[in-house]
Each structure stands twice: as structure tokens, then as C-alpha cells.
Amino acid sequence: MKAIIIDDEYSSSESLHLLLKNYCPQVEVTAICNDARESISIIHTHRPDVIFLDVEMPHLDGFAVLKAAHSFIRHVIFTTAHGKYAIRALREQAHDYLVKPFDVEELLAAIERLAVHSFPDPQSTRIEKLEMQLRKNSATHLALQTSEGFSMVKHEEIIRLEAESNYTYVYTSLKKYLITRQLGYYEEQLSEAGFIRVHSSHLVNITHIKNYRRGDGGSVVMSDGTNVEVSRSRKKDLLRVLLGEES
Description:
Layout: E1 2-6, H1 10-23, E2 28-33, H2 36-46, E3 50-54, H3 62-68, E4 75-80, H4 86-91, E5 96-99, H5 104-118, H6 122-137, E6 141-146, E7 149-154, E8 158-164, E9 167-172, E10 176-179, H7 183-190, E11 195-199, E12 202-205, E13 209-213, E14 219-222, E15 227-229, H8 232-243
Parallel strand pairs: 1-2, 1-3, 3-4, 4-5
Antiparallel strand pairs: 6-7, 8-9, 8-12, 9-10, 11-12, 13-14, 14-15
């Protein structure tokens, strides 16, 4: 997280900077300001995640700085030699309050509280990235839940799907899967991936159709040699896709 230290006392700001550098590697101090009058523009320029803000300063006190730049401030940790400002700091919705001279343990605790409540932890970030990758994969893969877990199967490898009561057989170029989901579930997922329902019991991959045989509804021969019946009600849609015919 990016931080700014605002304190009119040079020694105090340097002391805090050194503690953060040595004990809080997750905090990057991007600016130190020893004149409250300059702090507003510095906050505006750097847009920090957290500001360590002294209370008693000449020209502008910490509360005045907070009021003037509140729209550019995410979190504030007040730093002061006087404990009397603690209640007001809480009223101003400060994240934390540190009393000088700074105690390392109190500083670490304040940073930890800030990180827990305001920033995603690495594990959450990794999970979000994995979820994004799975959503991306869903455009090219089908997740099949098996007794052993999940199998991610490429759409291009799937030849056809066949309904069997409340189950579905998924036939690929490599193996057959028995899945405890109805065929309609997969029809919805694969509708934009080149699959078409040719029968109440059959969903086929158009790219794996080798031949169409005329008949009442006809049938299609798939790349694995399987002959799949086409129902009369679905013949028209199939021919439109394959040949551009209307009947």
C-alpha cells in the first residue's frame, strides 16, 4: 500500500519512515511532507492508500488537512504526541491513532488492521484470478464433474452428448463420460460453441458431423462412426445450419 507521512517535525517523520521501511515492507512511503500547507497538493498528486497525519501543526492542523483533502484520502492514521485527540480522530473516521514516540508493536498492529479490513489478502487475489481464468476457459472448455473430481474438456474434442434419463453421456475423441446432469444443462452451455440439438436425446458437435442421411428426420454420421437419429422437428434447423436449406 502507498503511504504519505505528513508531520511538521522532520525528526518525527523520519523516525516513522524508518520504522515503516524496517518493519512494514508492504508499505511504500511515496512522499514525506513537513509543511501542512503543501500537503493538499501532495495528497492530490500521489493519491495514497493511507496517510500518516500529525494533528498539531502550524498553519493547518491535521483535521483541517483531512477536511480539505477528504475526497483524495482513503485511510488516515493520526500521529500525535497528545492522546487528547483520540476521540475526535475516531469521530473523523480515522482508521487508527498512534501516539509519539512510536511503538513498533502498535505500528505493526495498526498496519495489520488496515490490511485486513481494507486490502485483499494474497490468497483472495489468487482465488479471484483463478475464477477469472475458469470463466475464460468456459468459452473453450466444458467442465465435467466426475466421481474423481472435474475434467476440463475442450469443446473441439467433444463429438456428441446423449441423454440417459437424468444422466448425460459425453463422448469425446478420447473417452466417454457419464455425468449426473441432464442434457438441457449442456445444451445451454454449448449453444454458442457449435453444438446443435438434433434429437431430444442427442446434442452434437457440428464440426464432427461427417454425413447427413436423408429420411423422415434423417440421421447424421459422426466422426467416430456413430449414427445419430435426427427428429423430424429438428431436421429443418440442422439443414439450415449445415446447408442453408429451409426444409
